[in-house]
Amino acid sequence: MATFIPESRSSRLISHEAAFEPVRRALVAAASEGATVFPAVIARASDPRNTFSIKSGATAELAGLKVGAFWHENPARGLPRHNSTILLIDQDCGRIGAVVEAAAANAYRTAAADAVAAKALARPDSGTLAIFGAGNQALYEVGALARILPLTRLHVVAREREKAESFAARLGQQGVTLDVRVSTPEEACRAADVIVTATPARAPLFEAAWVRPGTHVAGMGSDARGKHELPTALYERARLFCDLPSQSIEIGEFQHVRERIEAGALVLNPIGAVLDGRCPGRTAPDEITVFDSSGIALQDLYIGQFLLDAAMAAPDED
């Protein structure tokens, strides 16, 4: 019988600190031989506003999939819009070994990829962060980065000013204290050492000319065809990284320059190759680095295994 870990349990077991190492290991595995990430399936339910995705993969250690769902009217029912369920496959017999509800863990997992990449690519003295988006995922991104960078100031850019203004209070509830300012896209970019986008945008959120030398830029929102947060003109003067090149050019930010990457005009590096020392990360203080996180199945599998191990280590908690 498969082990079942409900959301009430997994949400207590996960944290920014807990998510960091499993996600780092997943990104290294993705850039290594013997790991496979299969093409993501992006689907719609009978109500086309409701969507779900299936991301699957395998390594020598793990195999399985994650089903992520976005249900438009859930808030009116008192339910979260986003849900996530991880299925770990027993590779000895092919049966489902564990089912892990992981809505909260998914937010931590996504933010951990941002933090892992920033630790490798951002200037270690980075003190000012610009965040595009003021939703739930943006909170997690800031929390993850504040743990590994010496951040003191945050510029928030959002379509709804009220939401941006409440961002500081919501951060405080998570124990993150920064000097928070509501800014225009240009103000935020010109001040930032690190720029992070966490939106469902389908057009660039800022201009390439606004990005200062030495900035690290992370696109966290593009995970389907047509999504687009970063200006492609920026790539001409930056070094480019992603979680998985084959997926990034399909559904991530680099789908918009796929032909140039495939022609060799732009070089796209897997962040896992940086993490295990096969590819240089930042090479100069004034270098611009760009990281695209399209969200890969191996991150979910390693997070799922962590949650399974943690639950088994404390079986009497519930």
UniProtKB/TrEMBL annotation:
InterPro entries: NAD(P)-bd_dom_sf, ODC_Mu_crystall, ODC_N. One of its GO terms (cellular component) is cytoplasm. Pfam families: OCD_Mu_crystall (PF02423). Belongs to the ornithine cyclodeaminase/mu-crystallin family. This is Ornithine cyclodeaminase. It comes from Methylobacterium tarhaniae. The lineage of its organism: Bacteria, Pseudomonadati, Pseudomonadota, Alphaproteobacteria, Hyphomicrobiales.
